[in-house]
Design a protein that fits this description.
mainly beta, 11-stranded mixed β-sheet, 4-stranded antiparallel β-sheet
Length: about 650
Protein backbone atom coordinates (compact mmCIF):
# COMPACT_ATOMS: atom_id res chain seq x y z
CA UNK A 1 0.00 0.00 0.00
CA UNK A 2 1.42 3.38 -1.03
CA UNK A 3 0.31 6.35 1.04
CA UNK A 4 0.93 10.07 1.02
CA UNK A 5 0.02 11.73 4.31
CA UNK A 6 -1.54 15.15 4.13
CA UNK A 7 -1.99 16.91 7.46
CA UNK A 8 -4.59 19.50 6.67
CA UNK A 9 -4.13 22.19 9.32
CA UNK A 10 -6.70 24.59 7.93
CA UNK A 11 -8.47 24.19 4.60
CA UNK A 12 -10.80 27.00 3.65
CA UNK A 13 -13.18 26.29 0.80
CA UNK A 14 -15.19 29.02 -0.82
CA UNK A 15 -18.23 28.05 -2.85
CA UNK A 16 -21.31 30.16 -3.20
CA UNK A 17 -20.36 32.03 -0.04
CA UNK A 18 -19.92 28.83 1.99
CA UNK A 19 -16.73 28.41 4.02
CA UNK A 20 -15.71 25.09 5.54
CA UNK A 21 -12.69 24.53 7.75
CA UNK A 22 -11.03 21.23 8.58
CA UNK A 23 -8.23 20.44 10.98
CA UNK A 24 -8.11 16.68 10.56
CA UNK A 25 -6.10 14.12 8.63
CA UNK A 26 -6.45 13.23 4.97
CA UNK A 27 -4.58 10.29 3.47
CA UNK A 28 -3.99 9.85 -0.25
CA UNK A 29 -3.09 6.23 -0.88
CA UNK A 30 -3.15 3.36 -3.33
CA UNK A 31 -3.23 -0.41 -3.46
CA UNK A 32 -2.48 -2.82 -6.28
CA UNK A 33 -5.37 -4.99 -7.45
CA UNK A 34 -5.45 -7.11 -10.60
CA UNK A 35 -2.11 -5.55 -11.60
CA UNK A 36 -3.66 -2.07 -11.50
CA UNK A 37 -2.63 0.65 -9.09
CA UNK A 38 -5.87 1.84 -7.54
CA UNK A 39 -6.02 5.14 -5.68
CA UNK A 40 -8.18 6.47 -2.88
CA UNK A 41 -8.48 9.38 -0.46
CA UNK A 42 -9.20 8.56 3.18
CA UNK A 43 -10.57 11.12 5.62
CA UNK A 44 -9.82 10.45 9.29
CA UNK A 45 -11.66 12.56 11.88
CA UNK A 46 -9.75 14.07 14.74
CA UNK A 47 -11.68 11.89 17.21
CA UNK A 48 -10.24 8.67 15.77
CA UNK A 49 -7.60 7.28 18.14
CA UNK A 50 -7.39 3.64 17.02
CA UNK A 51 -8.57 2.34 20.39
CA UNK A 52 -12.23 1.93 19.44
CA UNK A 53 -13.40 0.30 16.19
CA UNK A 54 -14.71 3.01 13.86
CA UNK A 55 -17.35 2.71 11.13
CA UNK A 56 -16.16 3.09 7.53
CA UNK A 57 -18.11 4.83 4.78
CA UNK A 58 -17.31 4.37 1.08
CA UNK A 59 -18.19 7.50 -0.92
CA UNK A 60 -18.05 6.74 -4.67
CA UNK A 61 -17.80 9.53 -7.24
CA UNK A 62 -19.91 9.83 -10.37
CA UNK A 63 -19.12 8.99 -14.00
CA UNK A 64 -16.32 11.29 -15.20
CA UNK A 65 -15.68 12.67 -11.72
CA UNK A 66 -12.89 12.03 -9.22
CA UNK A 67 -12.40 11.00 -5.61
CA UNK A 68 -11.30 14.52 -4.74
CA UNK A 69 -14.35 16.12 -6.34
CA UNK A 70 -16.71 13.76 -4.56
CA UNK A 71 -15.04 14.49 -1.21
CA UNK A 72 -16.19 18.09 -1.57
CA UNK A 73 -19.39 17.65 -3.57
CA UNK A 74 -21.01 14.92 -1.44
CA UNK A 75 -19.22 16.04 1.70
CA UNK A 76 -19.35 13.85 4.83
CA UNK A 77 -16.33 15.29 6.62
CA UNK A 78 -18.15 17.58 9.08
CA UNK A 79 -20.44 14.68 9.95
CA UNK A 80 -17.48 12.32 10.37
CA UNK A 81 -15.93 14.84 12.74
CA UNK A 82 -19.05 14.69 14.91
CA UNK A 83 -19.86 11.00 14.65
CA UNK A 84 -16.34 9.52 14.54
CA UNK A 85 -16.39 7.47 11.32
CA UNK A 86 -13.80 7.20 8.53
CA UNK A 87 -14.67 8.13 4.95
CA UNK A 88 -12.86 6.59 1.99
CA UNK A 89 -13.22 8.09 -1.48
CA UNK A 90 -12.09 5.50 -4.05
CA UNK A 91 -10.89 6.59 -7.48
CA UNK A 92 -12.38 4.94 -10.56
CA UNK A 93 -10.37 3.88 -13.60
CA UNK A 94 -10.64 5.11 -17.19
CA UNK A 95 -13.19 3.62 -19.57
CA UNK A 96 -13.12 5.10 -23.05
CA UNK A 97 -11.13 7.96 -21.54
CA UNK A 98 -13.66 8.67 -18.74
CA UNK A 99 -13.44 7.70 -15.08
CA UNK A 100 -16.04 5.11 -14.16
CA UNK A 101 -17.22 2.21 -12.03
CA UNK A 102 -17.89 -1.03 -13.87
CA UNK A 103 -21.57 -1.67 -13.10
CA UNK A 104 -22.82 -3.01 -16.44
CA UNK A 105 -25.29 -0.96 -18.43
CA UNK A 106 -23.46 1.80 -20.28
CA UNK A 107 -20.13 0.51 -18.82
CA UNK A 108 -20.68 -3.05 -20.06
CA UNK A 109 -17.48 -3.02 -22.13
CA UNK A 110 -15.29 -2.46 -19.09
CA UNK A 111 -13.15 -5.31 -17.79
CA UNK A 112 -12.22 -3.73 -14.44
CA UNK A 113 -13.21 -5.67 -11.32
CA UNK A 114 -14.43 -2.86 -9.08
CA UNK A 115 -16.18 -5.21 -6.66
CA UNK A 116 -12.91 -7.06 -6.10
CA UNK A 117 -11.06 -3.76 -5.74
CA UNK A 118 -13.56 -2.61 -3.12
CA UNK A 119 -13.14 -5.78 -1.08
CA UNK A 120 -9.36 -5.52 -1.33
CA UNK A 121 -9.54 -1.91 -0.16
CA UNK A 122 -11.64 -2.94 2.86
CA UNK A 123 -8.99 -5.51 3.75
CA UNK A 124 -6.14 -3.04 3.25
CA UNK A 125 -7.72 -0.32 5.36
CA UNK A 126 -8.70 -2.83 8.04
CA UNK A 127 -5.08 -3.88 8.35
CA UNK A 128 -3.99 -0.26 8.92
CA UNK A 129 -6.90 1.09 10.97
CA UNK A 130 -9.28 -0.19 13.62
CA UNK A 131 -12.35 -0.62 11.42
CA UNK A 132 -15.65 -1.92 12.76
CA UNK A 133 -16.26 -4.78 10.32
CA UNK A 134 -19.98 -4.82 11.12
CA UNK A 135 -20.45 -1.14 10.27
CA UNK A 136 -19.13 -0.67 6.73
CA UNK A 137 -21.40 1.34 4.43
CA UNK A 138 -21.48 2.59 0.86
CA UNK A 139 -22.91 5.63 -0.84
CA UNK A 140 -22.23 7.56 -4.01
CA UNK A 141 -23.37 9.95 -6.65
CA UNK A 142 -24.81 8.73 -9.98
CA UNK A 143 -22.36 6.03 -11.19
CA UNK A 144 -21.29 5.88 -7.53
CA UNK A 145 -24.89 5.15 -6.56
CA UNK A 146 -25.01 2.36 -9.16
CA UNK A 147 -21.79 1.05 -7.62
CA UNK A 148 -23.33 1.07 -4.14
CA UNK A 149 -26.27 -1.01 -5.39
CA UNK A 150 -23.82 -3.42 -7.07
CA UNK A 151 -22.05 -3.89 -3.73
CA UNK A 152 -25.38 -4.55 -1.99
CA UNK A 153 -26.04 -7.26 -4.57
CA UNK A 154 -22.59 -8.85 -4.90
CA UNK A 155 -20.64 -7.99 -1.74
CA UNK A 156 -23.36 -7.70 0.89
CA UNK A 157 -21.41 -9.85 3.33
CA UNK A 158 -19.10 -6.86 3.83
CA UNK A 159 -21.63 -4.01 3.74
CA UNK A 160 -24.26 -3.25 6.39
CA UNK A 161 -26.32 -0.76 4.36
CA UNK A 162 -26.10 1.44 1.27
CA UNK A 163 -27.45 4.75 0.01
CA UNK A 164 -27.63 6.02 -3.56
CA UNK A 165 -27.95 9.60 -4.77
CA UNK A 166 -29.18 9.88 -8.40
CA UNK A 167 -28.05 6.29 -9.08
CA UNK A 168 -30.02 3.13 -9.79
CA UNK A 169 -29.46 -0.52 -10.74
CA UNK A 170 -28.41 -1.59 -14.20
CA UNK A 171 -30.24 -4.58 -15.74
CA UNK A 172 -27.14 -6.69 -15.09
CA UNK A 173 -27.04 -5.73 -11.41
CA UNK A 174 -30.77 -6.35 -11.10
CA UNK A 175 -30.70 -9.74 -12.85
CA UNK A 176 -27.60 -11.01 -11.05
CA UNK A 177 -28.44 -9.66 -7.59
CA UNK A 178 -27.57 -12.08 -4.79
CA UNK A 179 -27.63 -10.29 -1.41
CA UNK A 180 -26.80 -12.37 1.64
CA UNK A 181 -28.73 -10.54 4.34
CA UNK A 182 -31.63 -8.08 4.73
CA UNK A 183 -30.11 -4.85 3.47
CA UNK A 184 -31.23 -1.34 4.45
CA UNK A 185 -31.55 0.81 1.32
CA UNK A 186 -31.83 4.59 0.96
CA UNK A 187 -32.51 6.10 -2.47
CA UNK A 188 -32.40 9.86 -3.13
CA UNK A 189 -33.53 10.78 -6.64
CA UNK A 190 -35.05 13.69 -8.52
CA UNK A 191 -38.15 13.11 -10.59
CA UNK A 192 -36.69 15.42 -13.26
CA UNK A 193 -33.26 13.79 -13.37
CA UNK A 194 -31.96 14.51 -16.86
CA UNK A 195 -29.07 12.00 -16.70
CA UNK A 196 -30.47 8.95 -14.89
CA UNK A 197 -34.21 9.22 -15.63
CA UNK A 198 -36.54 8.41 -12.77
CA UNK A 199 -38.60 6.22 -15.13
CA UNK A 200 -35.54 4.23 -16.22
CA UNK A 201 -33.88 3.51 -19.58
CA UNK A 202 -32.54 0.45 -21.38
CA UNK A 203 -29.40 0.66 -19.22
CA UNK A 204 -31.05 1.65 -15.93
CA UNK A 205 -33.99 0.22 -13.99
CA UNK A 206 -36.69 2.66 -12.96
CA UNK A 207 -36.55 3.93 -9.40
CA UNK A 208 -39.93 2.37 -8.65
CA UNK A 209 -38.62 -1.00 -9.82
CA UNK A 210 -35.50 -0.69 -7.69
CA UNK A 211 -37.44 0.31 -4.59
CA UNK A 212 -39.93 -2.53 -5.06
CA UNK A 213 -37.13 -5.08 -5.47
CA UNK A 214 -35.62 -4.20 -2.11
CA UNK A 215 -38.98 -3.86 -0.35
CA UNK A 216 -39.76 -7.41 -1.46
CA UNK A 217 -36.32 -8.80 -0.66
CA UNK A 218 -36.20 -7.19 2.80
CA UNK A 219 -39.80 -8.27 3.52
CA UNK A 220 -40.83 -4.73 4.45
CA UNK A 221 -44.35 -3.51 4.98
CA UNK A 222 -45.58 -3.01 1.39
CA UNK A 223 -47.62 0.04 2.38
CA UNK A 224 -45.27 2.99 2.85
CA UNK A 225 -45.51 6.00 5.09
CA UNK A 226 -45.27 9.10 2.87
CA UNK A 227 -44.43 12.49 4.33
CA UNK A 228 -44.29 15.75 2.40
CA UNK A 229 -41.32 17.58 3.91
CA UNK A 230 -41.37 21.34 4.52
CA UNK A 231 -40.42 23.44 1.49
CA UNK A 232 -37.63 25.21 3.34
CA UNK A 233 -36.19 26.79 0.18
CA UNK A 234 -39.08 27.72 -2.14
CA UNK A 235 -36.59 29.15 -4.66
CA UNK A 236 -34.90 25.83 -5.49
CA UNK A 237 -37.72 24.66 -7.78
CA UNK A 238 -38.31 21.35 -6.02
CA UNK A 239 -39.91 19.72 -2.99
CA UNK A 240 -39.26 16.45 -1.19
CA UNK A 241 -41.44 13.50 -0.24
CA UNK A 242 -40.02 11.01 2.26
CA UNK A 243 -41.25 7.49 1.50
CA UNK A 244 -40.57 4.83 4.17
CA UNK A 245 -41.14 1.08 3.91
CA UNK A 246 -40.54 -0.12 7.47
CA UNK A 247 -40.64 -3.33 9.50
CA UNK A 248 -38.35 -5.40 7.29
CA UNK A 249 -36.49 -8.49 8.44
CA UNK A 250 -33.91 -7.72 11.14
CA UNK A 251 -35.61 -4.34 11.58
CA UNK A 252 -34.35 -2.93 8.27
CA UNK A 253 -36.17 -0.36 6.16
CA UNK A 254 -36.18 0.86 2.57
CA UNK A 255 -36.43 4.63 2.36
CA UNK A 256 -36.71 7.04 -0.55
CA UNK A 257 -36.38 10.80 -0.68
CA UNK A 258 -38.29 11.65 -3.84
CA UNK A 259 -37.13 15.10 -4.94
CA UNK A 260 -40.13 16.30 -6.92
CA UNK A 261 -38.76 18.49 -9.70
CA UNK A 262 -35.16 17.78 -8.71
CA UNK A 263 -32.41 17.19 -11.26
CA UNK A 264 -29.20 15.15 -11.29
CA UNK A 265 -27.63 16.73 -8.20
CA UNK A 266 -26.69 16.08 -4.57
CA UNK A 267 -29.31 17.79 -2.36
CA UNK A 268 -27.84 20.31 0.02
CA UNK A 269 -24.42 20.42 -1.63
CA UNK A 270 -22.55 23.71 -1.49
CA UNK A 271 -21.55 22.94 -5.08
CA UNK A 272 -24.99 21.89 -6.28
CA UNK A 273 -25.87 24.54 -8.86
CA UNK A 274 -29.11 24.70 -10.80
CA UNK A 275 -31.66 21.99 -10.06
CA UNK A 276 -30.30 21.26 -6.58
CA UNK A 277 -32.76 20.82 -3.75
CA UNK A 278 -32.01 22.58 -0.47
CA UNK A 279 -34.91 21.30 1.60
CA UNK A 280 -32.75 18.38 2.76
CA UNK A 281 -29.04 17.78 3.21
CA UNK A 282 -28.35 14.47 1.49
CA UNK A 283 -25.17 13.80 3.46
CA UNK A 284 -26.92 14.31 6.80
CA UNK A 285 -29.88 12.16 5.77
CA UNK A 286 -27.61 9.39 4.49
CA UNK A 287 -25.54 9.12 7.64
CA UNK A 288 -28.61 9.33 9.86
CA UNK A 289 -30.04 6.37 7.93
CA UNK A 290 -26.91 4.24 7.54
CA UNK A 291 -25.71 4.66 11.11
CA UNK A 292 -28.87 3.04 12.47
CA UNK A 293 -27.72 -0.35 11.13
CA UNK A 294 -24.91 -2.82 11.32
CA UNK A 295 -24.43 -6.04 9.34
CA UNK A 296 -27.05 -7.73 11.53
CA UNK A 297 -29.76 -5.12 10.94
CA UNK A 298 -31.14 -2.37 13.14
CA UNK A 299 -28.47 -1.63 15.75
CA UNK A 300 -30.50 0.22 18.29
CA UNK A 301 -34.11 -0.02 19.13
CA UNK A 302 -35.41 3.07 20.91
CA UNK A 303 -35.39 2.98 24.67
CA UNK A 304 -37.66 4.47 27.26
CA UNK A 305 -35.90 6.53 29.92
CA UNK A 306 -37.74 7.04 33.22
CA UNK A 307 -37.28 8.84 36.52
CA UNK A 308 -39.53 8.66 39.61
CA UNK A 309 -41.79 11.52 40.63
CA UNK A 310 -41.10 14.09 43.37
CA UNK A 311 -41.99 12.12 46.48
CA UNK A 312 -39.87 12.93 49.53
CA UNK A 313 -38.39 9.45 49.70
CA UNK A 314 -38.05 8.75 45.95
CA UNK A 315 -34.41 8.29 44.92
CA UNK A 316 -32.95 10.05 41.85
CA UNK A 317 -32.85 6.73 40.04
CA UNK A 318 -32.79 6.63 36.23
CA UNK A 319 -33.93 3.49 34.41
CA UNK A 320 -33.73 2.46 30.74
CA UNK A 321 -36.22 0.09 29.16
CA UNK A 322 -35.54 -1.47 25.71
CA UNK A 323 -38.45 -1.41 23.29
CA UNK A 324 -38.38 -5.17 22.71
CA UNK A 325 -38.82 -5.96 26.43
CA UNK A 326 -40.28 -2.89 28.03
CA UNK A 327 -41.43 -4.74 31.12
CA UNK A 328 -37.85 -5.21 32.34
CA UNK A 329 -35.33 -2.45 32.91
CA UNK A 330 -32.00 -3.21 31.24
CA UNK A 331 -29.98 -0.67 33.23
CA UNK A 332 -30.37 1.78 36.09
CA UNK A 333 -28.18 4.31 37.84
CA UNK A 334 -28.51 7.09 40.45
CA UNK A 335 -28.07 10.52 38.91
CA UNK A 336 -27.43 12.41 42.15
CA UNK A 337 -26.19 10.14 44.89
CA UNK A 338 -28.47 9.72 47.90
CA UNK A 339 -30.78 12.71 47.38
CA UNK A 340 -34.56 12.38 47.42
CA UNK A 341 -37.48 13.92 45.49
CA UNK A 342 -36.96 11.94 42.31
CA UNK A 343 -35.28 13.12 39.13
CA UNK A 344 -36.36 14.84 35.92
CA UNK A 345 -35.14 13.14 32.74
CA UNK A 346 -34.67 14.25 29.16
CA UNK A 347 -32.44 13.40 26.22
CA UNK A 348 -30.87 14.90 23.11
CA UNK A 349 -27.89 14.66 20.81
CA UNK A 350 -25.78 17.24 22.60
CA UNK A 351 -22.43 16.13 21.16
CA UNK A 352 -23.47 15.68 17.52
CA UNK A 353 -22.76 11.95 17.25
CA UNK A 354 -26.32 11.18 16.07
CA UNK A 355 -27.04 9.31 19.30
CA UNK A 356 -29.08 10.71 22.15
CA UNK A 357 -27.38 11.44 25.44
CA UNK A 358 -29.17 11.21 28.79
CA UNK A 359 -29.89 14.53 30.51
CA UNK A 360 -31.05 14.79 34.11
CA UNK A 361 -32.32 17.60 36.29
CA UNK A 362 -32.48 17.28 40.05
CA UNK A 363 -35.92 16.93 41.60
CA UNK A 364 -37.49 19.67 43.76
CA UNK A 365 -35.83 18.60 46.96
CA UNK A 366 -33.59 20.54 49.35
CA UNK A 367 -30.20 19.00 48.63
CA UNK A 368 -28.96 19.20 45.08
CA UNK A 369 -30.58 22.37 43.77
CA UNK A 370 -30.83 23.08 40.01
CA UNK A 371 -28.20 20.49 39.15
CA UNK A 372 -28.00 19.35 35.50
CA UNK A 373 -25.97 16.33 34.42
CA UNK A 374 -25.32 14.47 31.17
CA UNK A 375 -24.56 10.79 30.56
CA UNK A 376 -23.63 8.68 27.53
CA UNK A 377 -25.19 5.24 27.51
CA UNK A 378 -23.09 2.33 26.25
CA UNK A 379 -25.53 -0.56 26.68
CA UNK A 380 -24.20 -1.64 30.07
CA UNK A 381 -22.97 1.61 31.53
CA UNK A 382 -23.95 5.27 31.73
CA UNK A 383 -20.75 7.29 31.59
CA UNK A 384 -20.94 10.89 32.87
CA UNK A 385 -20.23 13.41 30.14
CA UNK A 386 -17.15 15.44 31.01
CA UNK A 387 -18.12 18.97 31.93
CA UNK A 388 -21.87 18.46 31.62
CA UNK A 389 -22.36 18.88 35.33
CA UNK A 390 -23.54 22.32 36.41
CA UNK A 391 -25.98 24.38 38.47
CA UNK A 392 -28.36 26.20 36.15
CA UNK A 393 -29.61 28.73 38.72
CA UNK A 394 -27.07 29.13 41.49
CA UNK A 395 -27.99 27.50 44.79
CA UNK A 396 -31.78 27.43 44.53
CA UNK A 397 -32.91 24.20 46.21
CA UNK A 398 -35.99 23.41 44.16
CA UNK A 399 -34.57 21.38 41.30
CA UNK A 400 -34.58 22.08 37.58
CA UNK A 401 -36.51 21.01 34.47
CA UNK A 402 -34.52 20.07 31.37
CA UNK A 403 -35.05 19.68 27.62
CA UNK A 404 -32.91 19.63 24.49
CA UNK A 405 -33.25 21.02 20.97
CA UNK A 406 -31.16 22.27 18.08
CA UNK A 407 -31.77 25.99 18.51
CA UNK A 408 -29.16 27.12 15.97
CA UNK A 409 -29.40 24.36 13.33
CA UNK A 410 -25.77 23.28 13.76
CA UNK A 411 -26.44 19.55 14.20
CA UNK A 412 -25.93 19.69 17.98
CA UNK A 413 -28.78 19.88 20.45
CA UNK A 414 -28.56 22.68 22.97
CA UNK A 415 -29.71 22.20 26.56
CA UNK A 416 -32.71 24.17 27.78
CA UNK A 417 -33.44 24.55 31.47
CA UNK A 418 -36.47 25.81 33.36
CA UNK A 419 -36.28 26.80 37.00
CA UNK A 420 -37.89 24.36 39.43
CA UNK A 421 -41.10 25.11 41.35
CA UNK A 422 -39.43 26.88 44.26
CA UNK A 423 -39.84 30.39 45.62
CA UNK A 424 -36.63 31.97 44.34
CA UNK A 425 -35.96 32.01 40.60
CA UNK A 426 -39.44 32.20 39.05
CA UNK A 427 -40.14 31.07 35.46
CA UNK A 428 -36.55 31.56 34.33
CA UNK A 429 -35.57 29.82 31.06
CA UNK A 430 -31.93 29.46 30.05
CA UNK A 431 -30.07 27.90 27.12
CA UNK A 432 -26.75 26.10 27.29
CA UNK A 433 -24.24 24.94 24.71
CA UNK A 434 -22.13 21.82 25.26
CA UNK A 435 -19.13 21.53 22.94
CA UNK A 436 -18.69 17.78 23.44
CA UNK A 437 -15.24 18.11 24.99
CA UNK A 438 -16.02 19.26 28.47
CA UNK A 439 -17.31 22.82 28.43
CA UNK A 440 -20.83 24.09 29.05
CA UNK A 441 -21.48 27.74 28.24
CA UNK A 442 -24.66 29.75 28.60
CA UNK A 443 -26.40 31.09 25.49
CA UNK A 444 -26.50 34.86 25.92
CA UNK A 445 -29.70 35.22 23.88
CA UNK A 446 -31.58 32.51 25.78
CA UNK A 447 -32.12 33.80 29.30
CA UNK A 448 -35.61 35.10 29.96
CA UNK A 449 -38.63 34.95 32.23
CA UNK A 450 -41.48 33.26 30.41
CA UNK A 451 -44.28 34.53 32.67
CA UNK A 452 -43.24 37.62 34.52
CA UNK A 453 -42.14 37.09 38.11
CA UNK A 454 -44.24 34.35 39.78
CA UNK A 455 -42.17 32.03 41.91
CA UNK A 456 -43.32 28.62 40.71
CA UNK A 457 -40.81 27.80 38.02
CA UNK A 458 -41.41 26.81 34.40
CA UNK A 459 -41.61 23.62 32.32
CA UNK A 460 -39.69 23.49 29.03
CA UNK A 461 -39.62 21.62 25.71
CA UNK A 462 -38.22 22.21 22.23
CA UNK A 463 -39.29 21.36 18.69
CA UNK A 464 -39.32 22.70 15.15
CA UNK A 465 -42.80 24.20 15.09
CA UNK A 466 -42.45 26.05 11.78
CA UNK A 467 -40.35 23.65 9.70
CA UNK A 468 -37.38 26.01 9.25
CA UNK A 469 -34.78 23.61 10.66
CA UNK A 470 -34.42 25.54 13.92
CA UNK A 471 -36.07 24.23 17.07
CA UNK A 472 -38.28 26.62 18.98
CA UNK A 473 -38.64 26.64 22.77
CA UNK A 474 -42.03 25.87 24.27
CA UNK A 475 -42.78 26.77 27.88
CA UNK A 476 -45.51 25.70 30.29
CA UNK A 477 -46.31 27.69 33.41
CA UNK A 478 -45.22 26.12 36.69
CA UNK A 479 -47.68 24.87 39.32
CA UNK A 480 -48.35 28.24 40.92
CA UNK A 481 -51.62 30.06 41.52
CA UNK A 482 -51.32 32.91 38.99
CA UNK A 483 -50.76 31.97 35.38
CA UNK A 484 -52.64 28.69 35.08
CA UNK A 485 -51.97 26.25 32.21
CA UNK A 486 -50.36 28.91 30.03
CA UNK A 487 -48.32 27.63 27.06
CA UNK A 488 -46.00 29.93 25.11
CA UNK A 489 -43.65 29.54 22.15
CA UNK A 490 -40.31 31.25 21.68
CA UNK A 491 -38.33 31.66 18.46
CA UNK A 492 -34.55 31.57 18.81
CA UNK A 493 -33.08 30.82 15.34
CA UNK A 494 -29.55 30.97 16.74
CA UNK A 495 -30.03 34.42 18.31
CA UNK A 496 -32.09 35.99 21.05
CA UNK A 497 -35.35 34.38 22.17
CA UNK A 498 -38.47 36.20 20.98
CA UNK A 499 -42.07 35.35 21.81
CA UNK A 500 -44.15 33.75 19.05
CA UNK A 501 -47.34 35.79 18.94
CA UNK A 502 -49.46 32.92 17.69
CA UNK A 503 -48.31 30.47 20.37
CA UNK A 504 -49.74 31.77 23.65
CA UNK A 505 -52.77 29.95 25.02
CA UNK A 506 -54.37 28.32 28.04
CA UNK A 507 -54.44 24.57 27.51
CA UNK A 508 -57.00 23.79 30.22
CA UNK A 509 -59.11 26.81 30.99
CA UNK A 510 -58.30 28.65 34.19
CA UNK A 511 -56.82 25.83 36.28
CA UNK A 512 -54.09 27.35 38.44
CA UNK A 513 -51.70 24.43 38.60
CA UNK A 514 -49.62 24.97 35.51
CA UNK A 515 -49.07 22.72 32.51
CA UNK A 516 -46.49 20.22 31.26
CA UNK A 517 -45.30 20.52 27.66
CA UNK A 518 -43.64 18.41 24.96
CA UNK A 519 -42.93 18.67 21.23
CA UNK A 520 -42.84 16.03 18.52
CA UNK A 521 -43.91 15.25 14.98
CA UNK A 522 -46.86 13.15 16.07
CA UNK A 523 -48.70 13.29 12.73
CA UNK A 524 -45.70 12.68 10.44
CA UNK A 525 -45.95 15.92 8.46
CA UNK A 526 -42.33 16.95 9.05
CA UNK A 527 -43.27 19.72 11.50
CA UNK A 528 -43.45 19.28 15.26
CA UNK A 529 -46.68 19.65 17.20
CA UNK A 530 -47.12 20.64 20.85
CA UNK A 531 -48.43 18.10 23.36
CA UNK A 532 -49.65 19.25 26.77
CA UNK A 533 -50.33 17.45 30.03
CA UNK A 534 -52.38 18.99 32.81
CA UNK A 535 -50.39 20.30 35.77
CA UNK A 536 -50.31 18.68 39.22
CA UNK A 537 -53.52 20.14 40.57
CA UNK A 538 -56.60 18.28 41.70
CA UNK A 539 -58.89 19.50 38.92
CA UNK A 540 -58.01 18.36 35.44
CA UNK A 541 -56.52 14.91 36.04
CA UNK A 542 -54.29 13.19 33.49
CA UNK A 543 -55.60 15.25 30.60
CA UNK A 544 -53.45 15.17 27.43
CA UNK A 545 -54.05 17.45 24.45
CA UNK A 546 -52.37 18.17 21.12
CA UNK A 547 -51.83 21.46 19.34
CA UNK A 548 -50.89 22.28 15.75
CA UNK A 549 -48.83 25.38 14.99
CA UNK A 550 -48.93 25.27 11.18
CA UNK A 551 -49.24 28.82 9.92
CA UNK A 552 -47.85 30.30 13.12
CA UNK A 553 -50.97 30.06 15.30
CA UNK A 554 -51.64 27.25 17.75
CA UNK A 555 -54.90 25.37 17.20
CA UNK A 556 -56.19 22.36 19.11
CA UNK A 557 -56.01 18.92 17.52
CA UNK A 558 -59.57 17.68 17.94
CA UNK A 559 -58.48 14.05 17.75
CA UNK A 560 -55.85 14.29 20.47
CA UNK A 561 -57.83 14.96 23.64
CA UNK A 562 -57.64 12.14 26.16
CA UNK A 563 -57.34 11.15 29.79
CA UNK A 564 -54.53 8.65 30.26
CA UNK A 565 -56.10 7.45 33.51
CA UNK A 566 -59.65 7.93 34.79
CA UNK A 567 -60.09 11.18 36.72
CA UNK A 568 -61.37 9.17 39.66
CA UNK A 569 -57.96 7.47 39.89
CA UNK A 570 -55.36 10.09 38.97
CA UNK A 571 -56.10 13.73 39.83
CA UNK A 572 -52.62 15.27 39.70
CA UNK A 573 -51.87 15.85 36.08
CA UNK A 574 -49.76 14.09 33.46
CA UNK A 575 -46.12 14.26 32.47
CA UNK A 576 -45.70 14.23 28.67
CA UNK A 577 -43.02 13.61 26.03
CA UNK A 578 -43.34 13.31 22.24
CA UNK A 579 -39.92 13.43 20.58
CA UNK A 580 -39.19 9.88 19.36
CA UNK A 581 -40.55 7.54 16.68
CA UNK A 582 -40.62 4.25 18.55
CA UNK A 583 -42.25 2.06 15.91
CA UNK A 584 -40.59 3.39 12.73
CA UNK A 585 -43.79 4.65 11.11
CA UNK A 586 -42.56 8.21 10.62
CA UNK A 587 -44.65 9.58 13.50
CA UNK A 588 -43.46 10.31 17.02
CA UNK A 589 -45.23 8.50 19.82
CA UNK A 590 -46.66 10.22 22.89
CA UNK A 591 -45.28 9.16 26.26
CA UNK A 592 -47.42 9.94 29.31
CA UNK A 593 -46.35 9.51 32.93
CA UNK A 594 -48.59 9.64 35.97
CA UNK A 595 -48.55 12.94 37.83
CA UNK A 596 -47.52 13.20 41.50
CA UNK A 597 -50.82 11.99 42.89
CA UNK A 598 -50.35 10.55 46.41
CA UNK A 599 -52.35 7.53 45.24
CA UNK A 600 -50.43 7.09 41.99
CA UNK A 601 -47.85 4.48 41.20
CA UNK A 602 -45.10 5.05 38.66
CA UNK A 603 -47.01 4.05 35.54
CA UNK A 604 -46.10 5.22 32.05
CA UNK A 605 -48.27 4.82 28.95
CA UNK A 606 -47.27 5.15 25.30
CA UNK A 607 -49.78 6.24 22.65
CA UNK A 608 -49.65 6.00 18.87
CA UNK A 609 -51.37 8.84 17.01
CA UNK A 610 -52.22 8.49 13.31
CA UNK A 611 -53.81 11.89 12.91
CA UNK A 612 -57.32 10.60 13.51
CA UNK A 613 -57.05 8.95 16.91
CA UNK A 614 -54.62 8.22 19.72
CA UNK A 615 -54.41 4.54 20.63
CA UNK A 616 -52.71 3.17 23.72
CA UNK A 617 -49.80 1.01 22.56
CA UNK A 618 -48.42 -0.30 25.85
CA UNK A 619 -47.94 0.62 29.49
CA UNK A 620 -45.50 -0.30 32.23
CA UNK A 621 -44.90 0.50 35.88
CA UNK A 622 -41.39 1.84 35.86
CA UNK A 623 -40.52 1.62 39.56
CA UNK A 624 -43.28 -0.60 40.91
CA UNK A 625 -40.82 -3.25 42.13
CA UNK A 626 -39.37 -0.65 44.53
CA UNK A 627 -42.76 0.39 45.85
CA UNK A 628 -42.30 4.00 44.72
CA UNK A 629 -45.29 6.32 44.37
CA UNK A 630 -46.22 9.82 43.15
CA UNK A 631 -45.81 9.26 39.47
CA UNK A 632 -42.99 9.15 36.94
CA UNK A 633 -41.61 11.19 34.09
CA UNK A 634 -40.32 9.47 30.98
CA UNK A 635 -38.79 10.24 27.59
CA UNK A 636 -37.69 8.07 24.67
CA UNK A 637 -34.68 8.17 22.39
CA UNK A 638 -31.93 6.33 20.53
CA UNK A 639 -29.07 6.01 23.01
Amino acid sequence: MRKTMLIVAVMALFAGGVVSCFAQETVSGSITHDDLEREYILYIPDSYDGATPAPLLFNFHGFGSTASEQMFYGDFRPIADRAGFLVVHPQGTLFQGITHWNVGGWTAGSTVDDVGFTEALIDALSSEYNIDAERIYSTGMSNGGFMSFLLACQLSERFAAIASVTGSMTPETYDESNPQHPTPILQIHGTSDSVVPYEGTIWSESIDTVIQYWVDYDNCNPIPTITALPDIDPTDGSTVEHVVYSDGDNGVAVEHFMVVGGDHTWPGSAYGGAGTNYDIDASEEIWSFLSSYDINGLTELPRLLAGPGPAGDNPPLVRLFPLESMAVSEYEFPAYGASSYGVNVSCGDVDGDLRDEILTGAGPGEIYGPHVRGFKYHGNDAEPLTGLNFLAYGTNKYGVNVAAGDLDNDGFDEIITGAGPGAVFGPHVRGWNYDGTGAVTSLAGVSFFAYGTPKWGVNVAAGDLDGDGYDEIVTGAGPGAIYGPHVRGWNVDGGAAAAMGGVSFLAYGTNKFGVNVACGDIDGDGIDEIVTGAGPGAVFGSHVRGWNVDGGTATALANLNLFAWPSSEIRYGAEVFAGADLDGDGRDEIVVGQGPDPEAGTWVKVYQFDGSQAVEWFSLETFGDLGLTRGANAVAGHF
